[in-house]
Structures are given as structure tokens and as C-alpha cells.
């Protein structure tokens, strides 16, 4: 696995390094030792599979409040997304910044999102699926979010928003949470 740091502290693009032969290829998609060697949270408490029917579907920006903050390793296994990590950690040197990466089933790229960053994505094609790990189980009372059109971030989503949940549309515009821990 290749880890490329981004402009947001603790967020990494993770590329696979396939080993190929006449049968096809094999690539490590997750390795706790390699994550830990880069100083990243390697615990996996939960794995989620997300399916979106339509291109333009927007989900997020989500996080969990401390002490339930969750680090995620997000990979697209069908279709394509524009995946975003937004830094809502008040004490972070990159507070208020975000990074967006195109994850596709073809490029096999992943995004590591540390606890304390809000995560969201927009599907770029119909019938898209994401598979991602979370370092902490989903805790309903700890969930939080930031509105996808928050002027602090000014994220230029690639497509018009075709679908967003009422809950995601109602998140506040100003991040004000302790999401670390």
C-alpha cells in the first residue's frame, strides 16, 4: 500500500500495489501494521457497505462526537465518487480545510479519514457502492455533521445535487464540535 499525505493533517490517499500474473492480480486493501506505521488509527470496529442508486447523490458531511470519534478507510468498490474529508477539529493546524479525491472501482484508491474530520461524498455515476472501515461503532447519540454547502469549506461538488437526505440537508453551517477522542 502507498500512503500519500494530503493538505489536511492526518488525511491520506491510499493506493494499492497489485501483484499481477496471468490469472489477474492481488492487492492488499487493508493492513493494520502499515496504517500504524504511518501513525494512523488501525482499529476496525465496524465495516460498512453503502449503496447509492443515482449519480449526484450526496451523503454527509458526517462525524461522531468525542469520545466516539471514528477514523475511516473509504474505498469505492462499484462506480465512482468524489470523496471528501473536511477538518472540523478546532485545535488542528488544518482546521477549516478539506480535501476531495475521486475514488472509483477502477482506480482502487482509498481515502483515510482520521477521527475529527467530517466525511462526505457525491456519487459520480449510478449504482455506486462504498466499502469502508470505522474505528468506532456507530453511536446514534454521538453523530454530528456539517452542511455540505458550508461556506467555511466552499466544496465545489462536481455534479448538481440530485439527492440528499433531509437529515444531511439540515446539518449546521458552522462546525462547532469536539470530534476528537
Supply database-style keywords.
5-stranded antiparallel β-sheet, 6-stranded antiparallel β-sheet, 39% strand, disordered C terminus, globular, 181 residues, single chain, Jelly Rolls, mainly beta
Any overview of this molecule?
By secondary structure, the protein is mainly beta. The chain has one domain (2-16, 30-169): Sandwich (Jelly Rolls). It is 6% helix and 39% strand. The chain has 2 helices and 13 strands; from the N terminus they run ββββαβββββββββα. The chain has helices at 32-37, 166-169, and strands spanning 2-5, 12-15, 19-21, 24-26, 46-52, 58-64, 72-78, 80-87, 98-104, 110-113, 117-123, 128-134, 143-145. A hairpin with a 6-residue loop joins β1 and β2 (12-15). The protein is globular. It starts with a strand and ends in a 12-residue tail after the last helix. The model is unreliable at 175-181 (pLDDT under 50).
CATH domain topology = Jelly Rolls
Q: In total, how many domains does the architecture comprise? A: 1
- CA(first)-CA(last) distance: 26 Å
Q: In what range is the share of β-strand residues?
A: 35-45%
Overall, the morphology is globular
Which segments are poorly predicted (pLDDT under 50) over 5 or more consecutive residues? 175-181
Strand order of the largest sheet: 1-2-10-7-12-5
The largest pleated sheet is described as:
6 strands, antiparallel
Helical fraction: under 10%
The level 1 CATH classification is Mainly Beta
Overall pLDDT score: 93
Radius of gyration: 16 Å
The CATH superfamily is known as Jelly Rolls
The CATH architecture category equals Sandwich
Amino acid at each position: 500500500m502507498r500512503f500519500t499525505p494530503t493538505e489536511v493533517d492526518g488525511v491520506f490517499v491510499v493506493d494499492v500495489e497489485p501483484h499481477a500474473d496471468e490469472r489477474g492480480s492481488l492487492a492488499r486493501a487493508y493492513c493494520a501494521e502499515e496504517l500504524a506505521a504511518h501513525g494512523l488509527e488501525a482499529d476496525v470496529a465496524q465495516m460498512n457497505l453503502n449503496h447509492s442508486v443515482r449519480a449526484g447523490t450526496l451523503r454527509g458531511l458526517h462525524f461522531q462526537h468525542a469520545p466516539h470519534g471514528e477514523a475511516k478507510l473509504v474505498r469505492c468498490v462499484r462506480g465512482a465518487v468524489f470523496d471528501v474529508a473536511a477538518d472540523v477539529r478546532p485545535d488542528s493546524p488544518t482546521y477549516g480545510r478539506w480535501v476531495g479525491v475521486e475514488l472509483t472501482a477502477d482506480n482502487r484508491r482509498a481515502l483515510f479519514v482520521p477521527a475529527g474530520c467530517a466525511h462526505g461524498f457525491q456519487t459520480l455515476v449510478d449504482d455506486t457502492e462504498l466499502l469502508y472501515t470505522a474505528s468506532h461503532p456507530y453511536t446514534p447519540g454521538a453523530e454530528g455533521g456539517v452542511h455540505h454547502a458550508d461556506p467555511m469549506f466552499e466544496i465545489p461538488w462536481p455534479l448538481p445535487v440530485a439527492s440528499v437526505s433531509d437529515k444531511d440537508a439540515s446539518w449546521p453551517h458552522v462546525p462547532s464540535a469536539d470530534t476528537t477522542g
